[in-house]
Design a protein that fits this description.
alpha+beta; Killer Toxin P4, Chain A; 22% strand; binds 2-acetamido-2-deoxy-beta-D-glucopyranose; repeat; GNK2_sf; host-virus interaction; GNK2
Length: 284
């Protein structure tokens, strides 16, 4: 009897390990890039907390079927209205968008635990922001995060190709854009509340800044309030969805192999168990 209980515990443990492996494999894009909260705080007796929870929940739900949406949770007190938006990167699949927004929202509990009225998170695959000050449709070209790779000398040819690739980002009217040439890749993303000319204006500024601040670095990431531009030379640092889906398929392969191995182990345990019962009954 004790042996059976022991065996059952073991099987449950295996199943638990397996499910955690497969859960991990399902979220490409859920990698944190930056985040922050406003210093403005709401008081503990206000209805802001509940309004905020509603806003976050409705964004998580919406992300299962739309790559962008905004929410406004109304309140009789104008200071307690919550505005929010999320934007998934244009090249990720809807299930990944939903997983990313859900992960981003869950990070707010440690990022902004202190009754902050506003919060923002950028993950690899999505951006989520909320505040009681309406920011929807408003341009925001402030540098929020920038990162430049190492500079490995200066090459006129490489620089002009890189600049051409970045300029190519301005040739599309989309929220998500990709441009590449030879060994240089770049991507850009605006939030969906910007109109096409605001998006163009934001990206023009991000390109100017990334060229100025990262000069000839092997990669450059320039995140402004409402848009970003990222480039990489020789895939030193992967800004595009491609490398990520590679990563996630590696993880999936790992999950499948782990699953197969665990299946075999379970089968062996089961056979041993049968054998034991069988021999046990014969022995009587
Ligand atoms: C919260 O409580 C304080 C003090 O009790 C009061 O002055 C304030 O008006 C209250 N705020 C709200 C939103 O009810
Ligand atoms: C946001 O809430 C804070 C705290 O209640 C308040 O001081 C501030 O004025 C509000 N902002 C807006 C734009 O209503
Ligand atoms: C906000 O969302 C509503 C409904 O989804 C949409 O009609 C509106 O255009 C959006 N506003 C912005 C600024 O994106």
């Amino acid at each position: 009897m004790a042996e059976r209980v022991f065996l059952l515990g073991w099987v449950l443990l295996l199943l638990l390990l397996l499910s955690s492996v497969s859960a991990r494999s399902g979220d490409p894009g859920a990698q944190y890039i930056y985040g922050g909260c406003s210093n403005v705080k709401y008081s503990s007796n206000s209805s802001y907390k509940r309004n905020l929870e509603n806003a976050l929940t409705s964004m998580v739900n919406s992300a299962t079927f739309q790559p962008y949406n905004n929410v406004t949770v109304e309140s009789s007190n104008p200071q307690e209205v919550v505005y929010g938006l999320y934007q998934c990167r244009g090249d990720i699949a809807m299930p990944d968008c939903a997983a990313c927004v859900q992960e981003a929202v869950s990070q707010f509990s440690w990022l902004c635990p202190d009754q902050n009225c506003g919060g923002v998170i950028q993950m690899e695959g999505c951006f989520v922001k909320y505040d009681n000050d309406s920011f929807l449709s408003k341009q925001d070209k402030q540098v929020v995060m920038r990162k430049c790779g190492p500079t490995d000398g200066y090459d006129d040819q490489v620089k002009s190709t890189r600049d051409g690739v970045l300029a190519g980002l301005l040739n599309s009217g989309q929220l998500y854009r990709a441009s590449a040439s030879e060994n240089i890749q770049s991507v850009a993303q605006c939030t969906g509340d910007l109109n096409p000319s605001q998006c163009q204006d934001c990206l023009t500024e991000a390109i100017r800044k990334v060229k100025q601040e990262c000069f000839m670095a092997a990669y450059g990431d320039m995140f402004l309030g409402k848009c970003y531009v990222r480039y990489t030379i020789n895939m030193v640092h992967a800004p595009s969805g491609k490398a990520h889906s590679m990563f996630s398929s590696n993880e999936k392969t790992f999950a499948i192999i782990a699953g197969l191995l665990a299946g075999i182990v379970l089968l062996i345990i089961f056979l041993m168990f049968l054998k034991k019962i069988f021999i046990g009954e014969k022995g009587k």
